[in-house]
Structure formats: C-alpha cells, structure tokens
Amino acid sequence: MQQLEALTKDALDLGGGIIALSASEAEAARQLQVCNACRYCEGFCAMFPAMTQRLMFEKADVHYLANLCHNCGACLHACQYAPPHEFAINVPQVMAQVRGQTYKDYAWPPALGKLYERNSLVLTLALAAGLALFLALAVAMGGGLWNSAVSGNFYNIFPHNLLVGLFAPVFLFALLALGMGLRHFLRDIGPATSGASATTPAALEATSAVLQLKYLDGGHGEGCNNEDDKFTLSRRRFHHLTFYGFMLCFAATSLATVYHYAFGWQAPYDLPSVPKILGTVGGVALMIGTAGLWYLHRRRHPLHGDLAQKPMDLGFIALLFLISASGLALWLGRATPAMALLLCLHLGAVMALFLTMPYSKFAHGFFRSAALLRYAVEKRQPKSALPGAD
Q1: In the chain, N or C: fewer CB atoms in 10 Å?
Q2: What residues make up the domain containing 34?
Q3: Residue 371 maps to a domain
Q4: pLDDT tens digit string along 168-193?
C-alpha cells in the first residue's frame, strides 16, 4: 500500500503545475489509480471507460469522473479491494464526497457555496413552512384564510400579477445561478475531456442517457444495488417517476402561462383541459417517485454514499413530495373553505424550491448531464490523443 501511494505521488510530481487537490479529491485520485490497474468494473457505467482514458487524475479529471458516477453501488459490491482490504476502495462513497465539493466549488455567487452544507432536511422544511405561514398571515389579515366566498379561484386571494412579481424574479435568479455554475464547470472540465466541441451525435447520445437514466441499470440491465448485493431496478424506476413527474408539472405550468398570455384563458382549469391532465398525472408520479426514493434512501447501504450529504438529499426529496402533495390537495380542496390555507402551503413549498434550487440536490442533474455530454464528446476522439489511452 505504501509503495502504491509513493508511485502515485511520483506520478503526480512528474506532471508539474498541477492544481493542489483537496483531501477527498486526492483520495479519489488514489482509488482511481487502483481501479485503472484492475478495470474489472469497466462495463458498469460511463465513469470506468472514461477513467481508462487517463493515466493521471488531476482536479478537473476527478471532478468530471465524480459527476459521471451515478452512485449505483454496483462497483463496491464487485470490488475485490473494497473494505476491509487494505486498499480500501470505495468508489461510490469517494465520488459522492467529490460531487458534493463540486457543487460548492461551482456555486454562483461563490459566497453562497456554503449553503450546500446547510441545506438540510430540517432547514428545507422549515423554510417551506415559514414561507407558507407568512403567506397565511397575509391572507388572514385580509379576513380570507378560511372563507368560502373565495373558494374556486385562487386569483381571488393572490392576484396573478402579484404571484408573477413574487415568483418570477426568484425563479430567474435560480436559473441564472445554475447556468453560471454549469458554465464554470464545463469551462474547467472541457480541456480535460479532449477540448473538442460538442457535436449533434454526441448531444443526442448524452440526452438519451439522461432521459433513460441509462447508467442506473448496472451495465447489465438488472439494476444496481441498494441495501445489499442484490440487483434492483427500483432506484431507476423511482428516479424516472420523480423526473418525469416534475417535468409534467413544469409543462402544465408552462402551458398555463401560454393559455393566460396568448389566449386570455385564466386559471384555474378543469378536467379534461391539457394543463390539468399534465399537472394531475405529473403530481401523482412525483408523489410516488419521491416516496419511493425516500424509502430506498433510508435503507441504502451506509458505504454507498456520503453520509454528510444525507440530510440535503432527504430535504430535497421531502420538498418535492410536499409540492406534489399540496398541489393535488389544493386541486381536490379548491371548492372548500380550506382553499386559501392549502394555497399558502403549496406556494410556500414552491417558493422554497426556487430559493434553494441552485444550492440543493437539484443541481446534480445539471452537472451530471454536462459530464455525460463531455463523455459522449470525448469517446468520439482518437484514443491516442490522451496519455492514458490503450
């Protein structure tokens, strides 16, 4: 083990001009050196073929590979050098630690990167509850918190322009912050992944991998691992329900915006209108998906990920569940005196999502998509262009 560490240090010293690695990045580089010599897990996911393209692992390489890792756990159960072996190889755990660091390092504005460490389950739900309480107090002061006279139309409680004025700036800032962080990430990993520009075939391949969650099948189609060494497709299925449920809800909101401004058709909409169908199906799928992910996350093997990030993960899952559940409850209770209270709860949860979006687990989808795009670009380049090529 000492000889391996000495050889790794010598290889890094020969590189010259290398940016210093953090403790988690250095540990990731050490483990990748061992994996690169073994290559038993090469067929599991995109991270391992990308790893074999390298002889050395600098900061950009480690960040890139960490975001290619889907944290499925298959390589841990297959590894002959996993703990208690002296090499102590645990790729899912160290990659999760590095991913958490990349979210903080590329946060924009940089000063807000610390929010990743504080975005816990309790804080996330407290923020949603606090915002809902603020809105409820505002409505109560107007005498309409439990009022059958305003039931059926939430614009009687919060005018449309007021909602746009409250939510649009926060949402646009969240998109700007995510976009700036992603831009800096791609700028850093671009040269480390051949530097070539993305082509249409590469973009289509990356998009397909994202939409299918391709690398949660374990590389053999039977799925990955959760609490033990048994393969399961549960994580992939619940991720699909969560992702597509969220996208259907977003599509419903976007279409409702078009209805409002282009045709003058104001909400609320009833079945069988397209926005209502999209929102209902999306809300149910999102509830099932997040409930399933919560269950699986609580049962996951402790060596599969970074325990320090567990509160952030659970907070994000809980917030998505709260949004979907409160949205469906608002629809079902729209004609009751409870509508105003349900509306405040739903709007508080949505605002909490917007406020935490750039500094929560929401960001991982953007960074992983970017890494998959660079992988699709890099794999199309001549292997001889990289020092670690076969």
Answers
A1: C
A2: 2-107+377-385
A3: no
A4: 999 999 999 999 999 999 999 999 99
